[in-house]
Structures are given as C-alpha cells and as structure tokens.
Amino acid sequence: MDFFIRDLNHTEADGLIYPLFQDDSEENICGCVKSQVDKLKKAGKFKGEAGELFYTVKEVEDGFQYTLLLGLGKKEALSSETIRLAYAKALKKVKELKLNNVLVKMFESNEVCIKRRVKAIYEGMILANYKFDKYLSEKKESSIKEVFIKGIKEEDKVKAEEALGEAKVLASAVIEARELVNEPANFLDPKELAKRAKNIGKEYGFQVEVHEKDKIEELGMHSFMEVAKGSSRDPRLIVMRYFGDEANKEDILGLVGKGLTYDSGGYSIKPTDGMVTMKSDMGGAAAVIGAMASIAKMKLKINVVAVVAACENMISGKAYKPGDIISSMAGKTIEVLNTDAEGRLTLIDAVHYAIEKEKASKVVDVATLTGAVLVALGNTTTGVVTNNNDFYKELEKASELSGEKVWQLPAFDEYKKLIKSDIADLKNIGGRNAGTITAGLFIGEFVQNKPWLHLDIAGTAWSESEKEYLSKGGTGAGVRILYYLAKEKSCKESCNK
Ligand code: BES
Ligand code: ZN
Ligand code: ZN
C-alpha cells in the first residue's frame, strides 16, 4: 500500500474517506455528502463521534463507489492519537470492502497542525495494514494498493510532503521491529538477530559491529555470559553507531535494548503459558534497532550508539543456577536468586559497555523486563524508572509526539535497599513487591550517574490481539518514542501541535 498527496476526483477511486467532526457546522461539509450527513444526523445514525464509521455505496458504470464517513469527535479534543485510531478503523473497513484505492479527504484543525495530521493518518492506516503472514502457506492479499490524500491547501503542500516522507521512514522502522519480534526463536537466534541488524544498518545508513563469544569474554562481560552460557546458540554483542553531530562529539545518546531471543526462565523455569510468547523477549533490541534505522534515515543531527547483548536463557548442564554468585563487567558481584530475572543481568553489562567503551553520555535502556509492569500498568503504558527528571520531561514530550504512553514510577532510596545482598554486592531480585521498580533500579546501579531512563516495555511490546493500529504479536513499541526523543534533542520541531 502506497500513499500519495494528489487531488483526484471521487470518480477516480473506489472510495472516499470523508472525515466529520461532531460539531461540524453545515458550511464546512462538502456538497457531495451534505444531504446524506444531514439525514443521518437527524435519524441519529451518525454523530461524528471519534472512530464512528458509516458507509454508503453507489452503483456506477464500471462498478461501485463507496463513501466512508469517519467521525473524529469534538474539534477541540482532536489529537494525533484520535486521528491514528480513527483512520486505522477506516483502513480495516476499506480492506473488508475490498477496495483497491481510496481517497482520503484532508480536514482542517486548530489543534493538530498539517504535518501531524498527515503523519497520524499515514501511521494509523499503514500500521493497521500490517500482518505477520510469513509462515502462512496461503497469504491473504490485501486489496488496497493506493491511498490518495486530497484537499490539502496549496500553502501546506510542501509541509505535507515532508511529513509524509518522515512518516514513511518511521512506519517502516516500526514494521522492521515488528518483524523481528514476530520471528520465532528457532529462526531468530542471537546470530540471526545480529545479521538482521547488519542488513537494516546497510539499508538505513548506520554502522553495525558484531562481537562473538570470545570477544564478549575478553571484554569481561561476565554477567551477560552467565545468562548466555546455558544455550547451545552462542551470544552476540551487537553495537550500532550513528554520528550525525560531529561538532558535539562528546554528546552521545546510548540506547540499550534487551535482546533475549528466547527466555525459558532457565532453572527458575517458566510455566508453558508464560513461555510461549518469550520469542518477544528481544522487543527492546527491536526497538533500538528500529530507532537507529529511523534516526539514521532521517539524518538527525545527533550522535547515537545502540548496544544489544543478544542471547538465549536456557537450561543445560552449563547453565547458571539459582544461588550462584556471579561477577559483571563493572566488577560488582551479584547473587542470583532467580535465573528468570536474566534480562537485567545482560543489560547491566550492555549499559556498562555503552558508557565505558562507546562513551555514551546519556543512557536509555528499553526492555521487556518484568511481568509486574503488566500488573501495574496493563498493556497500554510503558513503565519508566529514571535518575533524572529533566530527561524524563523530554521523554514525556516524545511520548506526546508519538502517542506511545509512558508513566514514571517512583525510585526512592528505600527501594534500592531491596536489591542489596548479604553475601554479594547486589541480588538479582528484590522480592515480590515493586518488581518493576527494583528491576529498573538494579540497572540504575550501573549507569555511573549519567542521565538515564529505563523503559519497561513488557506490557507494550506484545499484543495478544489485533487492536486498532496494533497488529497481533509484536507492536514495535519503543521505536517511535525513541525517534522523537532523539529528534527533540537534535532540533526543536517547529510544529509542536
Ligand atoms: N522476560 C521476562 C518478563 C516478561 C514477562 C516479559 C511477561 C513479557 C511478558 C523477564 O525475564 C522475567 O521473567 N521477569 C521475571 C522477574 C522475576 C523473576 C523477578 C518476572 O517478571 O516474573
Ligand atoms: Zn526471565
Ligand atoms: Zn526475560
């Protein structure tokens, strides 16, 4: 499905998506649908509420012509997210009606500027169109091939084209991330993840270096190796670099993604139900790879390094065990009380590597880290732990721009006591309570006071069902919010509405 900005007539396409606000005044409604809308409103069949959909069909010479009325709610309440959700719904209807091409009429808004309107329409439709069908023998071809956005004011056209270009890059990066998460662990192991990262690097324009087991050992990444050693599939350390701001060489944003290509729990084994979706335990890695792709392709003026410690958490005679005391690249010792709390053990070495070897001056780690974040926030919101409120404010801005919801959790010193061990420097679990916070703070012990954000995407990286613009399975969570975080740092977007 491809998008164009083009002013075609209704007769030149199979259908028209016509947006309507709940409080649209008569004169704003085009003659082509006015009498219909009047009647529908009087009959109480269509009010224009956000996401409401009503369609009519007219027989024409060589087929049918559809008009889809799409509600956008109250004018002042409009947001990018309302637009994404509404157009995702419209796209699903367009597919159900088997339309090949459709016109999307642009609308005016004081709340959401033209760039963000274009982006939101595109994202809503294109992300709703994605489906992981690689392993289906019979694929269901989507009918819809072309979408034409029409009715953009002449003075807005350049901005709209620009926004469409950016939206295309961002959505393709999200889809790359979804593809990585959806690929089963029998195909996507650490070696394959590294290969895919390399290919994506080539395509989008960033450098990828991959270290194998011997080098990981040589670097002293003991904690990472302890998790990795139970699997017959060797680990990889994936390092991605993009330098877009040569003038500020010391400013380096470090992105660290959890890259467990499979998490069985190890000897603290998971029940089957909890294990079936654990191919998604590299959702953080997918997020940082997707973010690198979009940052590089858009040539943002920023320096970014991304690090993924990729491995599998398995059971074997070589695997680490509950009760073991292990070391880490930073030299701190850790008492392993639960082998299923493995993500943090890989992340601390990756974070330490990013700071020590790649000179990251700020760190964001992204990880499918705890089941507890699902209990606390459900699957709509990413939980955040930070040591720096200003950095969190920047993330909130990126959240607003991307529509990816975040919520800050408390990080008081009292919580830090919960991960102190009597026989080692730290222990890898903090007990039943406050699981997301203690997991985050465990990583925080390794950030050397650099500004740091920890994003627990265990609830948001995976969707059990198809929802609006989220497909079933990997959602690509993290890609867009990280992109906007980087973009906010690289420049102030002129349009913030
Ligand atoms: N990968 C899991 C977390 C997870 C759970 C991700 C559900 C996605 C959905 C992580 O490695 C894990 O097992 N965490 C444990 C920590 C516990 C042992 C302290 C958990 O959440 O149960
Ligand atoms: Zn685990
Ligand atoms: Zn895990």
Overview of the structural elements:
With 497 residues, this protein is α/β, with parallel strands linked by helices. It contains 15 helices and 19 strands. Helix 3 links the parallel strand 5 and strand 6. Helix 4 (157-182) runs antiparallel to helix 9 and helix 7 packs antiparallel against helix 10 (343-356). The model has no long low-confidence stretch (mean pLDDT 96). Bound molecules: ligand BES and zinc ion (2 copies). Residues 263, 265, 340, 342 line the site of one zinc ion. One zinc ion binds at residues 260, 263, 281, 342-343.
Concise summary:
The chain has 497 residues and is of the alpha/beta class. It has helices at 31-42, 80-96, 114-129, 157-182, 190-204, 213-218, 222-228, 272-275, 283-297, 343-356, 372-377, 389-402, 413-417, 435-444, 479-490, and strands at residues 2-5, 15-20, 53-60, 63-71, 101-105, 146-150, 207-211, 236-243, 253-263, 303-313, 325-326, 334-335, 362-367, 381-386, 405-408, 426-427, 452-456, 462-463, 473-474.
